[in-house]
Amino acid sequence: MVESDQEYAPDASDDDIDAHRVSKRGNSSGKRSGKDIITDGFNEVRRTWEDVEEGEDGTITKTIDSLLQQGKRKRTLKDTTPLQRGIIRHLIVVIDLSAAMTEKDLRPTRYLLTIRYCEEFVTEFFEQNPISQLGILGMQDGLAVRVSDMSGNPSDHISNLQALRKEEPKGQPSLQNALDMARAALFHAPSHGTREILLLFGSLLSSDPGDIHTTIASLVASHINTTVIGLSAQVAICLTLVKRTNPHSNPQKHYNVALDEVNYRELIMRLAIPPEAHTQQATSVEDSNASSLLMMGFPSRVTDPKPSLCACHSRPTTGGYLCSRCSSKVCSLPTTCPACSLTLILSTHLARSYHHLFPLQNWKTVSWSRATSTTHRHKTLCFGCQTPFPTHPTTTTTTTTTKQVLKGKLPTKPAFSDARNAESAPAEPSMAFLKRPEEQDMSSMRAPKRNEDQTGEGKEWAGKRVLTKRTFKTSRQYPT
User: Fold this and answer.
1) Residue 117: which H helix or E strand, with range?
2) What is the DSSP code string of 246-272?
3) Which of 155, 189, 350, 448 is surrounded by the most beta carbons within 10 Å?
4) Which residues contact 139 (CB under 8 A, 6 or more apart)?
5) How high does pLDDT run on average in the chain?
6) In contact, 97 and 118? CB cutoff 8 Å
7) Three-state SS letters, 119-179
8) Extended beta strands in 78-120, E state
9) Residue 123: per-residue pLDDT
10) Residue ranges of the chain with pLDDT lower than 70?
11) In terms of pTM, does the model score above 0.85?
């Protein structure tokens, strides 16, 4: 039986059939053009291939450049209002490792794309927050697994994420178990830093052993902020989690569903910027004074002639940093001293963290006349690196080339931008047009060399010597 979009109505009149038809335009005819079908069925889809325009040179370089410029303008239009932000962050990334991550709506798969974006996020996170801490958890088979412990070393996190590529996602996720483990990891975080959870959720369900609302209440009591990025659709329990853990912010800012690969990466990288700090009522006077000042140590690097054990990994190393308080050796910075719990950082780490508190102003677009103004010397150079500004892109050498032609100094090989323009370039003028009519048969001859006996007068044109008389005497025989 042939499939049909309409229901079979035996012994029905034409009026009854028309009454059962559904038409958005009110057209009673059963035929619709292909354009109408596309308009009705795909009106929400953006046709990106229609935005591509071919340039004059036959390539899409112009379109690619415009897309890059749009990305730059979007980054330069960020809010530069100075706000109080938490520069010392403690973040737990929870990755969905269930069977739902095997879907291929995000290429190559949700699982592999999430791991790759998480590796990029770890690098960007510690670039923007050098004195922060990060941990990674996973959800699979109804359990929460620990992928990477809370630390400030990005190399450890990236190596643990790369080890996940050899495994396959399986089972169902457990949102409650993952939140309980994340809360336990953030429980001992100091009060002067932020406590955050980033949940990458690709499933539409959660296999929980108990009441998840009790876990959400404990997160609210511990002042833990949660951000959720969905890969399938919006889930009600995730929306409730975001609303209760972020009471001072808009839920749409902390819960989004990725539309495609590019949007997925943008949502993840947006978490690299420290969040805004909201005023919280202190429970006691000691808690209010504890966050005013923070003691930190700035150790110097030392190199021992013989290897010794470090206090952080108990590994024999020759180089390291000595704690400013107890002289314990640690491998890398920033970290916390395992002996005296003193925060150890470098001065450069602290300076890089403060640029979020005092952001630079956005760049402003100026005209070429102002950028190339010679009234003041600093206007034609970059204020930071003293590099001169480029010339106007529309400036050409047409005028110069015309003057060279008039003077008889046209270059033999003119420069063209590409092969297409070179093919359409005008050919070099023929020599026959520069001689008298009776001398046009000599246009194919070239002048003899200087060491040859030559009688006749010549003249210079475009770097070549042209004979003006037919009578000459030479030792070489030229074809007629």
Assistant:
1) helix 110-128
2) -TTS-HHHHEEE--SHHHHHHHHHGGG
3) 189
4) 94, 95, 96, 97, 98, 145, 173, 174, 175, 177, 178
5) 75
6) no
7) HHHHHHHHHHCCCCEEEEEEEECCEEEEEEEEECCHHHHHHHHHHHHHCCCCCCCCHHHHH
8) 89-96
9) 93
10) 1-51, 72-79, 82, 278-292, 371-380, 393-480
11) no
Give the closest residue to 117 by CA, choosing from 181, 198, 173: 198
State the DSSP H helix or E strand holding residue 243, giving kind and residue range, or none if neither: helix 236-245
Amino acid at 270: R
pLDDT of residue 177: 96
- DSSP reduced 3-state for 99: helix
Chain center to CA of 409: 50
Structure tokens at 374: 């010679």
Closest by CA position to 222, among listed 267, 187, 178, 190: 187
Q: Which pLDDT does position 412 carry in this prediction?
A: 46
- Tokens of residue 291, six digits: 């966050």
Q: What is the pLDDT of residues 237-274, one digit of tens each?
A: 999 999 999 998 889 999 999 999 989 999 999 999 88
Q: Which residues pair with 256 in a beta bridge?
A: 229
Question: Are 230 and 202 spatial neighbours (Cβ–Cβ below 8 Å)?
Answer: yes
Decide: 139 and 96 in contact? Cβ < 8 Å.
Answer: yes
Distance between CA atoms of 294 and 276, rounded to whole angstroms? 19
Residue 388 is given by DSSP the state B
Tokens 């980054």 correspond to: 75
Angle at 358 between CA 352 and CA 362, to 5 degrees: 105
Asked whether the bond before 334 is cis by omega within 30 degrees of 0, the reply is yes
3-state secondary structure of 219: helix
The span from the CA of 166 to the CA of 244, in Å, is: 37
Instruction: Give the pLDDT score at 11.
Output: 54
Q: Which residues pair with 138 in a beta bridge?
A: 95, 145
- For residue 390, what pLDDT is reported? 73
Angle 216-99-255 (CA atoms, 0-180°, nearest 5)? 40
Nearest to 174 by CA among 200, 204, 139, 202: 139
DSSP 469: -
Look-up: residue for tokens 């206007």?
379
Q: What are phi and psi of 123, to 5 degrees?
A: -65, -45
Return the half-sphere exposure (C-beta side, CA atoms, 13 A cut-off) of residue 151.
17
Check the CA dihedral 186-188-189-191 and report its sign: positive
Distance CA 219, CA 298 (A): 34
What is the rounded distance in angstroms from the CA atom of residue 73 to the CA atom of residue 125?
22
Secondary structure letter of residue 354 according to DSSP = G
- Rounded CA gap, 316 and 319, in Å? 9
- What's the confidence (pLDDT) of residue 36? 40
